[in-house]
Amino acid sequence: MLQFATPMEAERAVAAWRHRADHQHPPDNPWTTWLFLGGRGAGKTFAGAAWIAEQAALGANLALVGPTFHDVREVMIEGPSGIRSLYPAGQRPKWQASRRRLEFGNGAVAQAFSAEDPDSLRGPQFHAAWADEFCAWPRPAETLAMLRFGLRLGTDPRLVVTTTPRPIRALRNLIAEPGAAQTRAPTRANADHLAPAFLSTLQGLYGGTRLAAQELDGLIVEGEGGLFRAEDLARCRGAPPARFERVVVAVDPPATAGGDACGIVVCGRFDGRAYVLEDRTARGLSPNGWARRAVEAAVRWSAAALVAEANQGGDMVRSVLAQAAPPCAVKLVKASVGKRARAEPVAALYEQGRVIHCGAFPALEEELMALGSGDLDHSPDRADALVWAVSELMLGVGKRPRLSVL
After folding, report:
1. Adjacent-strand bridge partners of 390
2. Do residues 179 and 280 share a domain?
């Protein structure tokens, strides 16, 4: 069994585990919870297992929580990407079935728990924990709370959550938590380690559907009734043109400084199409903070206008943007109809293939798919900003007669 007398020895021992894809490494920024949202086969299990092995090498007391005990053992511990697979034969940590725990050679222990029994997490304490397939837990919020009460050892207890996302409130709350860092990875990010025909077969069968968006792209897909279809978003990706006829930065200001995020989306127009160039939406900024962020985007993209919704304090919005020294005109727009009515013409442009996403914007696409479904439990700030930007470029907001939705 592996023995680690010093941190340096531990560092050498885990070096092999660091030869993994970039998306399987923990984020560089400080975090207390690392949330890995990925499609099927995106490498979530290997990422969680390698991180646990690193903590075990330092002698940590660990928790492993899966949807059931069977999942913990067969996937997280014994699976082809599980913890034991990281060690050479003869040096693997030992599974003690009677005590439901994995014992490492240096004395570290990883206890196994089923999310079906949140009360089993009362009492034990840990330095770190790995929670797998969180969205498949029967009582995710309750079980996660019990797990966190046990993370009280050491100076920096941390939690890794790996899951294929589903539109559940517990996941949305987790995403919005302070100190939560995210990794997003579609199945294709791990294509080198999958059967050659796996992706092509599933894309042929399910490509463009909500099932593919959730299970292959790792997106939070809302229920039926949304205006923006998964198939339209799946085929809207492309490269930007060499130049644009016009670029705008749209801003959807938050109602309060500490509440909703400030939606900031950059779009350009060329040859009858709108191109989504950047999503700079941010949460927790002061009015001066989000104004500077929007102006920085306008400078970077040589925008012709800053388009800002004025329903929430129009004079204040104009004032804070002016103080940030914008390089272009500031245009205030007011919502005279509901979000769904404003978004319908933009959704039609997506259906016609006239909006192109020049990059990966998973959070924005999730909000777009949620518009009109009634399932979104927060303000769709990113989606609102995009609707304003595309409307300004493609529908002539403020220049043509107002659309009436019958």
Report:
1. none
2. no
The parent domain of residue 121 ranges over 7-192
> How many beta carbons lie within 10 A of that of residue 205, not counting itself?
10
In angstroms, the Cα distances linking 44 to 15, 123, 155, 163, 186 are: 19, 28, 26, 7, 10
129: helix, strand or coil: strand
Q: Tell me how far apart the terminal alpha carbons of the chain are, to the nearest angstrom.
A: 72
Residues 109 and 239 in one domain: no
pLDDT digits (tens, 9 = 90+) for 149-167: 999 999 999 999 999 988 7
Q: How far apart are CA 109 and CA 89, in angstroms?
A: 19
Q: Based on the fold, state whether residues 61 and 129 are members of the same structural domain.
A: yes
CA distances (Å), origin 315, targets 23, 137, 398: 43, 47, 18
Q: Which of 172, 192, 212 is the last residue of a domain?
A: 192
**8 Å CB contact between 314 and 338:** no
Q: Total structural domains in the chain?
A: 2
Task: Give pTM, 2 decimals.
Answer: 0.61
Q: How confident is the model at residue 201 (pLDDT cuts 50, 70, 90)?
A: confident
65: closest CA among 10, 155, 142, 177?
142
Q: Count CA atoms closer than 13 A to 281's CA, side-chain side.
A: 22
> Which pairs with CB-CB distance under 8 Å and at least 24 residues apart come from 207-212?
207/231, 207/234, 208/234, 208/235, 210/369
257 and 313 housed in the same domain: yes
Does residue 31 sit in the same domain as residue 178?
A: yes
For residues 171 and 33, state if they share a domain.
yes
